[in-house]
């Protein structure tokens, strides 16, 4: 353990990328939203200090995946009848276990988790009428290098239903969101995740030409569903060219590009930085998790970061692995390489 390794200048030694770069919807989103955030998360692999909201979302996702298994149908029925997970002991044990795993097991958080799960369960949880098969967390991994198109994408689809209706078979995909806002503006019609998942469906189910996609926002019990447009093959072909461009740009991205498209100071995206300081009630304001300088820990193998943590993890590295303490000097848009605040910050 090199506890004394405080890298005063993070931009001095960009890591070597040796593995193929896999794109995901969230990676592309970060890349397009803020170059500094992208470099911190994906080049330096800083741990994302997730907040209660993100951890609640992870607990909800885990429980929904378990409940979707056919053998748990009775538990689902019991929860629907009771109107809460709390009155179904077998289910509540799982909810509590997942809440503890993500450190959101206090009364307030666990009540919210219960309510969010119920929103998902009450809205065609096992697929629309005519569903013949339902799969949770369906993984996809697509690598294309043909006819000028070149990209690697992967992800996991929360819920995939195969549905038979009067006109044939349709694949119906749902993604659960625990964000505090629904999509608006361009993201209602041009949403990278929706495009990517529909492209994945074309690869996974080439014989099925009809694809539907919706988001279910668990924080909006009255109207949780936002249906996305179904993209035609021609539109998905066009998206493949966009992915090809993104693949090249993201592969050639280095720490030197960290400030190329940073959100700080941008009139549209500046809010992503958050605001340092406290609210009137004394609680800290929300700020970007990569804004402030901090120490972090990485597990290295063959010179590559395998995992990272905010605090020293209680693990013993295997032979060939090393645990190293590092220093992040803060977002380069707000701090210089010695972790000193820039004047305008
Ligand atoms: S603080 Fe702002 S500019 Fe810096 S990484 Fe976060 S969003 Fe990007």
State the major sheet: 5 strands, mixed
Average pLDDT: 91
Total E-strand runs: 8
Q: Give the percentage of residues in beta strands.
A: 15-25%
List the helices and strands and how they pair.
Elements: H1 25-33, H2 35-43, H3 52-67, H4 73-82, H5 89-101, H6 107-121, E1 131-146, E2 149-165, E3 168-177, H7 192-204, E4 210-217, E5 225-228, H8 233-251, E6 294-301, E7 304-309, E8 321-328
Parallel strand pairs: 3-4
Antiparallel strand pairs: 1-2, 2-3, 4-5, 6-7, 6-8
Report on the structure:
The chain has 345 residues and is α+β, with helices and mostly antiparallel strands. The protein has helices spanning 25-33, 35-43, 52-67, 73-82, 89-101, 107-121, 192-204, 233-251, and strands spanning 131-146, 149-165, 168-177, 210-217, 225-228, 294-301, 304-309, 321-328. The strands form two sheets. The chain has a five-stranded mixed beta sheet. The chain has a three-stranded antiparallel beta sheet with strand order 7-6-8, with no helix packed on it. The model is unreliable at 1-12 (pLDDT under 50). Residues 34, 36-37, 40, 262-264, 272-273, 288, 290-291, 331, 333-334 line the site of iron/sulfur cluster (SF4).
């Amino acid at each position: 353990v090199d506890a004394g390794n405080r890298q005063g200048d993070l931009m001095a030694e960009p890591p070597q990328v040796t593995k193929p770069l896999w794109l995901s919807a969230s990676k592309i989103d970060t890349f397009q939203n803020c170059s500094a955030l992208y470099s911190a998360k994906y080049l330096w692999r800083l741990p994302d200090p997730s907040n209660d909201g993100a951890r609640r979302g992870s607990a909800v996702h885990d429980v929904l995946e378990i409940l979707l298994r056919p053998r748990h149908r009775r538990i689902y029925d019991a929860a629907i009848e009771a109107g809460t997970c709390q009155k179904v002991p077998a289910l509540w044990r799982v909810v509590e276990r997942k809440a503890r795993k993500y450190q959101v097991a206090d009364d307030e958080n666990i009540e919210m988790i219960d309510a969010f799960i119920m929103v998902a369960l009450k809205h065609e949880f096992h697929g629309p009428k005519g569903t013949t098969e339902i799969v949770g967390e369906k993984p996809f991994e697509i690598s294309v290098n043909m006819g000028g198109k070149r990209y690697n994408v992967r992800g996991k689809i929360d819920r995939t239903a195969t549905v038979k209706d009067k006109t044939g078979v349709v694949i119906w995909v749902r993604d659960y969101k625990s964000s505090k806002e629904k999509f608006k503006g361009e993201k209602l019609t041009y949403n990278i995740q929706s495009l990517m998942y529909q492209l994945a469906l074309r690869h996974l189910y080439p014989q099925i030409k009809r694809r539907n996609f919706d988001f279910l926002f668990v924080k909006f019990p009255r109207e949780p569903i936002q249906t996305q447009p179904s993209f035609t093959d021609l539109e998905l072909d066009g998206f493949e060219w966009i992915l090809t461009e993104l693949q090249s740009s993201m592969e050639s991205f280095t720490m030197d590009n960290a400030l190329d498209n940073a959100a700080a100071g941008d009139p549209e995206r500046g809010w992503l930085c958050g605001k340092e300081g406290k609210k009137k009630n004394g609680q800290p304001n929300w700020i970007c998790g990569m804004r402030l300088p901090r120490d972090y820990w990485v597990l290295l193998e063959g010179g590559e970061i395998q995992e990272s943590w905010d605090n020293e993890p209680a693990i013993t590295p295997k032979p060939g692995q090393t645990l190293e303490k590092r220093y992040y000097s803060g977002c380069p848009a707000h701090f210089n390489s010695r972790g000193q605040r820039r004047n305008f910050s």
